[in-house]
Amino acid sequence: MSKKIIGIDLGGTSVKFAILTQEGEIQEKWSIKTNILDEGSHIVPDIIASIQHRLELLNLSAEDFIGIGMGSPGAVDRFEGTVVGAYNLNWKTVQPIKKDIESALGIPFFIDNDANVAALGERWKGAGENQPDVVFMTLGTGVGGGIVAEGKLLHGAGGVAGELGHITVDFDRPFDCTCGKKGCLETVASATGIVNLTRRYADEYAGDATLKRLIDDGEEVTAKTVFDLAKDGDELALIVYRHFSQYLGIACANIASVLNPANIVIGGGVSAAGQFLLDGVQKVFNENTFPQVRTSTQLVLANLGNDAGVIGAASLVLQ
Predict the structure, then answer these.
(1) Do residue 166 and residue 284 come from a single domain?
(2) Are residues 256 and 166 located together in one domain of the fold?
(3) Domain presence at residue 115
(4) Closest CA to 117 of 66, 72, 182
(5) Domain region containing 57
(6) Average pLDDT score over residue span 6-15
(7) Which InterPro entries match (predicted)?
(8) pLDDT of res. 271
(9) How many domains does the structure of the chain reveal?
(10) Cα dihedral value 269, 174, 297, 25, nearest 10
(11) What is the pLDDT of residue 141?
(12) Are 76 and 151 within one domain?
């Protein structure tokens, strides 16, 4: 029997696990709640206990695995196998994850940043179609990403290659970004960014639009609300959609001109708007790329959903 891989996707609310074949097929998956109490000191022991319990249930041992891969938020030192500054996990100090997991389980352990790992997953088994050149962009609360160039994940000199959310796209009326800069892509293209744009244009809009009424009445407005109303032809929602498309389309055009990937894969919660989102971004992309890029780089929607993280984490073992 060929040996298997364990993939772990560590998030602020849950830890997802999967047992996969070396071809990337998921055979078993489960999850546990992330316990961030006591400065996140329970997280690694909980991960170890969960894996031990699952291996007992399945009558498997360390000898059945070639490795464990994990994606984590925060600043990851992939050589030392440590994480620091993962504030959504309450990890303020350096966490020696590799040392703890390897000594408890006796299985080789590999780790990388969560967005990089999701990029590897979509590249290997998802919309990246296992091409050697793929950029993954995730539109969630913020905007994250990962870059695979000529088959290798790019990390950069400071380990922050692929921070696509901090490309500057708004020069005219920039919002402040949490990174300390102004005008970053994530201030206008994340779930939060779309709400920023909605409030900006609602203040200037004098017509009678449903989205305007929702804002004026203090109702909760999300990115999904905006896209649903834009699909229905709501005038204010369409204004927001056009500006969002402009910013994201320009960012994708610039990424494509520098890296010329086969696919720019767009995922994350905001991408649930589907083909409608892609159509607006594609139009701007086409207007801002030169012919060789326009014909060789495709914009596509991610298709692995929540499995991208565990699949990509497993692929770290094979790198």
Answers:
(1) yes
(2) yes
(3) yes
(4) 72
(5) 4-120+307-317
(6) 94
(7) ATPase_NBD, ROK, ROK_cs, ROK_glcA
(8) 94
(9) 2
(10) -30
(11) 87
(12) no
Instruction: Identify the DSSP state of 291.
Output: H
Does residue 125 fall inside a structural domain?
no
**Residue 298 — φ and ψ, nearest 5°?**
-105, 145
The residues, ordered by sequence, that sit 6+ positions from 190 with a Cβ below 8 Å of its Cβ are: 139, 140, 141, 142, 143, 165, 270
8 A C-beta contact, residue 51 and residue 128: no
Question: pLDDT for 217-253, tens place per residue?
Answer: 999 999 999 999 999 999 999 999 999 999 999 999 9
Q: Is 99 helix (H, G, I), strand (E, B) or coil?
A: helix
Residues 234 and 142 both lie in one domain? yes
Looking at the fold, whether 53 and 95 belong to one and the same domain comes out as: yes
Encode burial over 2-34: b for 16+ CB neighbours within 10 A, e otherwise: eebbbbbbbbeeebbbbbbeeebeeeebebeeb
Residues 178 and 277 placed together within one structural domain of the fold: yes
Which residues does residue 77 pair with via DSSP β-bridges, in sequence order? Answer: 82
DSSP 267: E
Does 295 lie in the same domain as 200?
Answer: yes
Rounded to an integer, the average pLDDT of 93-115 is 97
User: In the predicted model, what is the mean pLDDT of residues 277-285?
Assistant: 98
159 lies in the same domain as 260: yes
Q: Is 39 left (phi over 0), alpha (psi -120 to 50) or beta?
A: left
